[in-house]
Amino acid sequence: MAVVAPGLLEKTWYDTFFEGWFRMKQFEAFALDTANECLWREGVQLSLRPKPFAVLRYLVEHAGRLITHDELLEVLWPETYVQPQVLRTYMLELRKALGDEAGQPRFIQTLPKRGYCFVAPVTECADGRRSASANSMQKEEARAIAIVGREEELTLLETRMQQSATGQRRTVFITGEAGIGKTALVDAFSQHSAFAPQACIARGQCVEGVGRTEEYYPVVEALGQLCSGPEGDRVCRILTRMAPAWLTGAACDQEAKRTTVDRTLGDLCAALEELAADKPLIFVFEDLHWADESTLHLISALARRRAPARLMLLGTFRAHEASEAVAEKKALLGLKQDLLMRRLGEEIALAPLGKSAVKELLRRELHQEELPTGLATFVHQHSEGNPLFVIAIVEHLIAQCFLMRETSDELTAWQQRAPFAEIEASVPDGLAQMIEREVERLSPMDQRLLEAASLTDVASPAWAIAAALEMDQAEAEEACDNLARRLYFVQRVGQDELPDGSRSAFYVFAHGLYREVLYQRQAVARRARRHVRVAERLGQLFTGREADVAREIAQHLEAACQWSRAADALRTAARQALQRQAYAEAAHLLEHAYALTENMGRVEGPSAQAEIQAELDAARQAASSIQENVKPLQRKLDDF
Q1: Which of 65, 122, 253, 640 is deepest in the core (most CB within 10 A)?
Q2: For the residues 461-479, what does the mean pLDDT come to?
Q3: What is the pTM of this model?
Q4: Same domain, 363 and 441
């Protein structure tokens, strides 16, 4: 076969693709080929008509900023009148090609009555021989390997693996809340251990709902991986000889399967120990809170056998899920506690990431060392150190155009479009749905308790929860204590003494995002009634001292749209501030009260405004007089 130099070959699809690649703008798995006016996805050309391509090109070339309807029409159809509705047709075609959704945009965000914004990060490919699919795959691999703030846990797992290689059985439970990074830790450990030629790893996934209908589901999955892996022939031979019934569902020859034989734990334990004779065997069972009781029996049997074995068991589960009143979940907690007590197992409880770890995670996620000012603090505050929440919040900031890529001095980096302190944090849609699913698993009474607790900003006292739900305070406190024992995101943090001498426990949400979702899920009318009840109960508790809590009463009344009553409470708080000669504070409260009068009716509003304005003028004048008296003293101090 003659060898022809590449430069002498006729131009092929491959050449055409990579000639244009240097002029391509890439976003996720897509590449916009402006030279050949086409769109590629992982090396495959997508069918796109000229006009939709022109719309997409203009949006991509001006990514990160609002493109109005008029601007698009003027650029694409200069000096020609075109109905604006045509843009909607093209947007539908583009979203279909990109797999985008208008409700949760990854690429094109619609700004109602204004225009569109391309929100995905756009880059110029510097290497013409790297396909979009390779970039996408490398990004996913990097994310899987990238784990921060878990160095001690990873080292501990590696130490246990080394011990298991000497014949010491090891059972480790990795626990923590949803999104805390249990699977990421196992992934990092597995990928690192995979480089050790003596280790063999099999993973089984427990699935919600399956545990009650199919025994040993994750066990059979893990065995299937072993049978279809590099050592598959050896695994099948050992299982055929020692535990033939366990070949069901595994990737072995049909002749080797004997499904008529009953499955016994002893046979499988012996077979697994035989498998681990040559090289250490690591079994990973994920989400054990959904495991069937038979799988838990197998873990117990493997952990308790006395014979030396180069065997390591890893199990992940959410501790709060396992505490619910379901037989299998109680069995899991009992198994863990018993193994820990007998020193046959140990637990790695993953805590939230600290601020420095969140900052490092953001650096890796955004691929830049210098982060926008205030980003790490903002994300850590609203994520509470949960890695899943960190990523979701960053993606949300990008989708909302609060974070955008900008080029300065030939360097492209993420920059904020507004100070983070001024950004009103909202719950990303994906997280809101996840939290909503968690809440829906609870009983109706538990849901009402959580909704009532969300009515207060920081701590939720039992008396307020009882007032909102019209419950007896003692019953409400007992129910909340029970809830705090079962849920990781609700904690009892102390007690308050009430004016009548009684005491009331108070609770906090571990994540502000949970409070926000629980608050928003309530019907507006029901939520308003609950706010009013809390405000009225607060007034009753502080009878004769209402001014001390007037600001808190105003917050609940304002949330209930009780504008007049809220304004009166703010005026009461302002009068108390005036008595303390806190004139600036009084003025601030009265300004807030005046703003509320804008929501009042035509009859009530003007008269309330006149009264509040008079009080506000007096407070401002007093504050100004104090300021004038302070200036000479300040000058003397400065001179001194």
Answers
A1: 122
A2: 94
A3: 0.65
A4: no
